[in-house]
Design goal:
This protein has 512 residues and is mainly alpha-helical. The chain has helices at 35-39, 45-65, 83-94, 107-117, 136-143, 151-162, 203-215, 232-250, 270-275, 280-292, 298-322, 350-362, 367-381, 385-395, 401-412, 429-435, 456-467, 469-472, 479-487, 490-508, and strands at 3-6, 28-32, 68-72, 98-102, 123-127. Helices cover 48% and strands 5% of the residues. The structure holds flavin-adenine dinucleotide, ligand DLZ and iron/sulfur cluster (SF4). Pfam families: DPRP (PF04244).
Length: 512
């Protein structure tokens, strides 16, 4: 009897552990597009189209290589609508001897399969996901006994483990582990950025685009233009293009933000990494090689490698270490509803309008926009973490809960009380003015705190510190912020808090 290998939508890697458990000629690969996964949050149409097209292309590649693939399309009349129900249907029809699965990325999905095990007539074995560079057990061992889990120390351990940018004495190349001090330039003076690749849409993608237009047009976000890579070969072209044309300036302008310029020198590779079309280790090695060949400077290469070998793996470790309790955390008891402008309603705050617009068009915005514009606003305005997390999970094409949740709940909202970040990333309009050109197009003034045109981020920033003083005042990284607050004249402090309340009232009535 044949074995059944279930491959999920974000497991599109030929090196997948579950695939290596089967014999391509005798056993069967199962893949399915299902309503439950496409609608448990209202995913951006571009994200659904990307994943369905990438899944179909991956299935095609497997077939060409000789695998037997059973693929359920979204609109197949017999489609049962969920991963579990489709697995049960396949088991009833194929009567396999065993089922193999690589561990799902999300706790929710793993739980579904764990709960199913006892109801199945055959064994279901879950294999470790070797695509990640740190296993869940390794992370837990590293975390054991530590009072604080900090990315920087985890990252150094990972650099040593993989011997990346490490010299013959075991020290970091260049003498330092981190060159972020060189990575904070604004990009207002740069006239243009490398143009990104585009791909001709084949019949598979065209069919998926028609399907997504028919079923998901009510979800937030634009389906067209659709220019994402959907195969491993195309994703590799994206990676090579980034290494050859963008990596050189990646570091310097990593934190910069510009109107009408979504990607700058960022890689835009997270879609492909998270779906499995690219592997983290190959990207780290490609970047390291570019440094060794003197194609890119150390601050850029180290910065890029840190995002993947450090942040990405650390975030996954945090997710599995603290789930399921993590999802419920709300350190500041933030309970305001998510404002309608996150879903495209009008706002006078240009920075938010622009980031939401870019998100709607591309299902992407880069890290600092996610953290310091929409995330920062949600933190300062006390938006409920569950609603904020649901938004991030829906609107970005790279969003899966294992990576979205710690980034949003932990890094952007500090709703875990500092389990992963050493301080809240709260900032006033001054930061946004320095790092972007957004304020030049805004009807608010980033240099004004109390006036009619005062930037809402300013009063909200001080108000956030004041409201959460008991929880934050002993944080050494907020020492200067609280010192400045203490220095403020009492009447100015009072006026700032009154202003913040006015802003929150305007927010609640939809006129901010
Ligand atoms: P680059 O800047 O080019 O970085 C290279 C790669 O490093 C990325 O492709 C990504 O794989 C990895 N990386 C960088 N930063 C992080 C990070 N903090 N966590 C994990 N990986 C990282 N990333 C996701 O992949 N999915 C998400 O759902 C997601 N949600 C986020 C929500 C918030 C509130 C914040 C602040 C960040 C979130 N991130 C998420 C992290 C980061 O913003 C994206 O990985 C990055 O913007 C992807 O764009 P890029 O490929 O151009 O990244
Ligand atoms: C995100 C997603 C979507 C939109 N659709 C599917 C699908 O139809 N079939 C599938 O196997 N996977 C899909 N996914 C990805 C799953 O939600 C993913 O496997 C989990 O998020 C676990 O990381
Ligand atoms: Fe954003 Fe304030 Fe600048 Fe307007 S002035 S773009 S609201 S930071």
């Amino acid at each position: 009897m044949a074995k059944l290998c279930f491959i999920l939508g974000d497991q599109l890697s030929e090196s997948l552990s579950a695939l290596s458990e089967i014999n391509m000629h005798d056993d069967v690969v199962l893949m399915c597009e299902v309503t439950e996964e496409a609608t448990y949050v209202s995913h951006h149409p571009k994200k659904i189209a990307f994943l369905f097209s990438a899944m179909r292309h991956f299935a095609q590649t497997l077939k060409i290589k000789g695998y037997r693939v059973r693929y359920t399309k979204f609109d197949d009349p017999d489609n049962q609508g969920s991963l579990v129900k489709e697995l049960i249907r396949a088991v009833e029809e194929l009567r396999p001897s065993a089922i193999c699965l690589t561990e799902p990325g999300e706790w929710r999905v793993l739980k579904m399969f764990e709960d199913l095990k006892s109801k199945l007539p055959v064994s279901l074995t879950v294999y470790e996901d070797h695509r990640f560079l740190c296993t869940i057990n390794e992370f837990n061992d590293w975390a054991k006994g530590k009072k604080q889990l900090r990315m920087e120390f985890f990252y150094r351990m990972m650099r040593q483990k993989y011997h990346i940018l490490i010299d013959n004495n075991g020290s970091p190349i260049g003498g330092s582990w981190n060159y972020d001090a060189q990575n904070r330039n604004p990009a207002k003076h740069i006239p243009s950025f490398p143009k990104r690749l585009d791909y001709p849409k084949d019949e598979i993608t065209a069919e998926v685009l028609r399907l997504v237009a028919a079923y998901f047009s009510k979800h937030f976000g634009q389906l067209h233009p659709f220019d994402l890579a959907v195969t491993r070969a195309q994703a590799l072209s994206e990676a090579n293009y980034f290494i050859n044309h963008c990596l050189i300036s990646f570091g310097a302008y990593q934190d910069a933000m510009l109107t009408n310029e979504t990607t700058l020198y960022h890689s835009k590779l997270s879609f492909y990494l998270n779906a499995g079309l690219l592997l983290p280790i190959e990207l780290c090695r490609m970047a390291e090689q570019a440094y060794l060949e003197k194609k890119a400077p150390l601050n850029s290469v180290e910065g890029f490698i840190r995002q993947i070998l450090g942040w990405r793996e650390f975030i996954r470790g945090i997710y599995w270490h603290f789930m399921p309790a993590y999802k419920e955390m709300n350190h500041f008891h933030a309970n305001r509803d998510l404002p309608a402008f996150f879903w495209g309603a009008d706002t006078k705050m240009f920075c938010i309008r622009e980031v939401v617009r870019q998100t709607s068009v591309e299902a992407y915005s880069h890290h600092i926009q996610r953290l310091m514009i929409t995330g920062n606003f949600a933190l300062l305005a006390g938006i409920n973490p569950k609603q904020v997390c649901e938004w991030y999970l829906a609107v970005y094409a790279d969003a899966y809960e294992w990576v979205e949740l710690p980034n949003t709940l932990g890094m952007a909202l500090y709703a875990d009380g500092g389990l992963m970040a050493s301080k809240p990333y709260a900032a006033s309009g001054k930061y946004i003015q320095r790092m972007s050109n957004f304020c030049e197009s805004c009807s608010y003034n980033p240099n004004d705190l109390l006036g009619e045109k005062a930037c809402p981020f300013n009063a909200l920033y001080w108000n956030f510190l004041k409201q959460n003083e008991e929880k934050l005042k002993n944080n050494p990284r907020l020492h200067y912020a609280y010192m400045n607050w203490q220095k403020m004249a009492p009447d100015k402090k009072e006026a700032t808090q009154t202003k913040a309340q006015e802003i929150l009232t305007s927010l609640d009535s939809g006129c901010l």
